[in-house]
Amino acid sequence: MSIFNIKKTIITSLFILVILLTSNAIFAQQEIPEEIKGLIAQGINTLESAKSSEDIDTVIEIFKKAVNTIPNYPDAHYYLGKTYSMVQGNAGRAVKELKKYLELYPNAPDNEKVMKDISQLEETIKTKRKFNLAGIELISLSDGVYVRSIYPNCPYDRLTARGGGVRIHDKIVKIGDVDVSGLSLQAVLSAIESDSQKYVNVTVERGGTLSKTFLLKNISNRYENFRDLGEDDLSEIITDSKELLLVVFGTDWDEKFKPCIPVIGSLVNTYKDKVSVITVSVNENRTIAKEYNITEVPVTLIYKNGKKIDEIKGCQGDLIKEKVNVLINK
Fold first, then answer.
1. Is the overall model pTM greater than 0.90, yes or no?
2. Is the pLDDT score of 10 beyond 50?
3. Residue 289 backbone dihedrals phi, psi, to 5 degrees
4. What CATH number is given for 2-128 in this structure?
């Protein structure tokens, strides 16, 4: 895969690896275990041969293991960040990893290119605060951006059953009249946001032929007192939060989720600066939902000072109020 070509030489020769490490003072006194080279090689090879979204999930886990093995090894953060950037809902995580790469390797030869990547990802974070794709998750593979999944019972799921809308495995070729074949996920999301229509006309490649269909674009931030996670980094929000934080996983077209909105909104109104709320759309943040072991929705996770202190499944408004009241008045 082209984004990794420059760095692939790190694991093709021990001699080159030694040159790289000795050029970075961080590793002057630190021996790099043999397994880190194996993990990097495995991750790159898996990524270059990736044919499905599940392969990308595997790559993320490999590079996460590399980061955990050697937290101060710059390139492990680079690879993890670039892989995160290929999966919808992970721009914030990608930024975090790429910034860590530059922090550990400030004189990196690709410093300028990585800074541009970070800038584009930060624009994606801002863009996705404005809209969501109503049940669609996109992913970037080696030859373009594809529809990774369609969440059960979402508007698209019902449309697909009647033969309309995009389908799983569709490759996005055009957004309106804009050719996006070969562009990054960030560029495709930007093109969707730039289209003024709710039903965005798209051209997809399906079964070797081109078909015209559409994407449904919902406006985010419909809730006055709290916002959707979008592409932000949830772990960073949790860590940085000083007040009580409710993280609500759900889908806004789910009838079980809708009653939660007024309940949570009233809590924020009552306690104002003492409670904050983030909603996480599980269809657009599949990687994050998996990491937080979300197996059913809606579910509300309650955090205080960065630590999880409770979990409430379903829309149990009275129970959520009771828990929040107790925690606020402690």
1. no
2. no
3. -60, -40
4. 1.25.40.10
